[in-house]
Structure formats: C-alpha cells, structure tokens
Design a protein that fits this description.
The chain has 213 residues and is an alpha+beta fold. Helices cover 20% and strands 40% of the residues. The strands form three sheets. It has a seven-stranded antiparallel beta sheet with strand order 3-4-5-9-8-7-6. Strands 1-2-10 form a three-stranded antiparallel beta sheet.
Amino acid sequence: MNFEVKSLLFGIFLMCNLGASATAATTAVKHFSPANGAYIATVPQNWTIQTDYTFSVLGPGHPLPGVLFSIPQSEAAGTNLSSLGTGVAVVTPPRHQPCDARDYLATARNSVELSEAGILWTMAHATDVGTGTKSTTQIFARRIGGHCLLVLYLVHTTDLNAYPAGSVQPYDRVALLRTFDRVRRSLVLASVANITSGMRGPIATKGATTQRH
C-alpha cells in the first residue's frame, strides 16, 4: 500500500472518529421515568432532576406534583440566564381538572393550539418582571383520557443593564427553547392510569437506559 493511500485511509479514520466524538458530546442524554412508570423523558446528561417539584398555581393547599429538569450552571455562565429554576417541568394535575394551558397561568388571557405529530397541545405563557429579574413561564397542556399532562418551560433571567458593559452576554433564547422542545417531544407515555398516581418515589437514570424502582 503506497503512502498516498495510507494517508487517505488515516484521514478518513480520523474524521470518522472525530465526528463520532463530536456527535456523542452534543447528544449525551439520560432517560428518566417516575416510580409509577407513567412516562419516560429524555434530557441532557448534565441536567439536574428534582423529583419533589410542585407547581402552586391553584392556590394554597393545592400544589401540583411534578418533576423539574434543570439546566446546569455551566450553561448559564457568562450570560444573564439564571440556572436556578430554569428548565422543563412535567406536572400532573388531579384527574378531571381543566386541561387548557391558560387555566394554569393567572395572567394568561388566552391560549393557542399546537398540533405536532398528531398530538394536540394548548399553549400559554406569562412573564413576571421584578427588580432586575424576569421570569417567564410557558405551559403546554395535553389531554389524555380523563387526565391532563402539563409541560412547563421555566426561564429566569437578570437585567443586562445591572452588569458592567460587556461583562455579561445575553443568553441564547432560540437555542434554549430548542432544547426545551426536544425534551417535551421526547416524552413517551406508558400507562395512562398511572399518570396522576404515585408521582413520588425513588428513580435511577443511566446513560441511554431507563431504570426505576
């Protein structure tokens, strides 16, 4: 085998391996399933999973149980995005509760319908502005039999004007919402009967497999 052929084969080998490494780096995920096995969600490997999350939209004494998948601090570093509480939450209201997204946001006047791959969602959003901070909640609601499934996009940011000029960059909203969309679309429902029962419980995640106990 001459030198030119060897060089060409080595180049192809190198490109294939570098490409595989890059793909693995950008698609590293883990799968999550609650103790009742109601659904499986696929999230980035470095995201944090909070299984005792509650969404208190219905007032005191009526918390809605769910799971919050939060972005890591590294994704917010150097930007005005706060990693604390920013992420995607999956929430399950009690059976026979309303299932229009606007019903779960006090300031939302209406909702819009969104159809994806034969699945119908309603979507509503609201923004809460504080002193130097802004919190945006976008809710997607899906009816499944007598049950309702909510997926929340939670984004918390700080005012860029509060920092020295050039020290902090605006976060990439398009990229963040694209990742949130992938998480929502990854949801696979297992047992409709279990959607609103036993949301609490130990779970385990492992690479490209899903385990629950």
